[in-house]
From TrEMBL:
InterPro entries: Sig_transdc_resp-reg_C-effctor, TrmB-like, Tscrpt_reg_LuxR_C, WH-like_DNA-bd_sf. Residues 264-321 form the HTH luxR-type domain. One of its GO terms (biological process) is regulation of DNA-templated transcription. The lineage of its organism: Bacteria, Bacillati, Actinomycetota, Actinomycetes, Kitasatosporales. GO terms for molecular function: DNA binding. This is LuxR family transcriptional regulator. Gene3D superfamilies: Winged helix-like DNA-binding domain superfamily/Winged helix DNA-binding domain (1.10.10.10).
């Protein structure tokens, strides 16, 4: 690691420039008299005393006895943990302070500045705002997902990264989402396998993403007119509360798209995928295409599943599969 990179890392942890220079000198010369460390860092006695004291307080250096005894750095594990927590607390406090200041401004100047609670975003500005929204999520993302899709490279990677950070993702997919060629295999299934909670309905009322309780993204996509370059950002207000309630209502109605197998012996992944598509309302043609099999093979698999579940038709099969935990 270069001295410049280490110095920057210390700065980000709250260690000042002078203390950083002393720490670099410690790593190069220690164990050594404190006076030699100060000379290498180019500091006066007063500057050295303050800088070295800061390192001791941070748990990065041993305390020097009066008279300038030999000093050395100490294992930084505990000190770094304290510094990291302190910096995290400072960042969180700053975030709350800035957010609070803006909210005070919004409340006081709403009438004067016509501060709209709904922002309209269009064109090339949509992609960066979407990516920034996913990155800002702290606890939960709720989403209605359906075509047409805004062309945004890396969207699936963003969703997987958000899941990896421990953010809960609940998504209600429309049946049309399952029918877009490649969308199930390349987008939906990777997210479900990574922990996304997915459900499906024949249709969803709007394309929607709700970030925590902070704001919502509403697409104005109109399939018939092929309009997909306008998005609304809804800030905390009655409209946002209504969108949250709308999502929760449809979430309760939707059919789970992923679940644990509870039937002894489990279920082969191919058959589970078949049931997912069937429960989502996908046509036989779409199911056969997504699974890479012929319609004849599809019908044969359906007959076997119905026999396993004791079902006389597909509707009964879907009900029995859900009861068995296959959906």
């Amino acid at each position: 690691m270069t001295n410049a990179k280490l110095g920057e890392a210390l700065r980000l942890l709250g260690i000042g420039h002078a203390a950083g220079q002393v720490y670099l000198a410690l790593l190069e010369l220690a164990p050594a008299p404190l006076s030699a460390i100060g000379a290498a860092a180019g500091l006066s006695d007063a500057e050295l005393a303050a800088a070295y004291g800061a390192l001791v307080d941070a748990g990065l250096a041993s305390a020097a006895e009066k008279g300038g005894d030999v000093v050395a750095p100490v294992p930084p594990t505990a000190g770094l943990e304290v510094l990291a927590r302190h910096r995290a607390a400072e960042v969180e406090e700053s975030r709350l302070t800035v957010g609070g200041a803006f909210e005070a401004f919004r409340r006081q100047r709403l009438a004067t500045y016509n501060d709209h609670l709904v922002e309209v975003v269009t064109g090339d500005a949509i992609g960066p705002r979407i990516r920034r929204a996913w990155a800002s999520a702290r606890e939960q993302i709720r989403q209605f997902e359906s075509p047409p899709y805004f062309p945004l490279s890396g969207a699936t990677d963003d969703a997987l990264a958000t899941l990896a950070r421990g953010v809960t993702q609940r998504v209600v997919y429309s049946r049309e989402s399952l029918e877009v060629p490649g969308h199930l295999k390349e987008v939906i299934e990777p997210c479900v396998n990574a922990g996304e909670q997915a459900r499906v309905l024949p249709s969803v009322p709007v394309k929607l993403v709700i970030i925590d309780e902070a704001y919502a993204l509403v697409s104005l996509s109109i399939k018939e007119a092929d309009v997909h370059n306008t998005m609304l950002i809804v800030q905390p207000c009655g409209l946002l509360s209504a969108l949250v309630a709308l999502f929760e209502q449809f979430w309760q109605k939707a059919l789970p798209f992923h679940g644990r197998t509870t039937r002894p012996g489990g279920l082969p992944p191919a058959d589970r995928r078949l049931l997912w598509l069937l429960a989502g309302g996908a046509s036989d043609e779409v199911i056969a295409r997504e699974m890479g099999i012929s319609r004849r093979t599809l019908f044969r698999r359906l007959q076997i599943l119905m026999a396993q579940l004791g079902a006389a038709n597909r509707f009964q099969m879907a009900l029995q599969a859900q009861r068995c935990g296959w959906l």
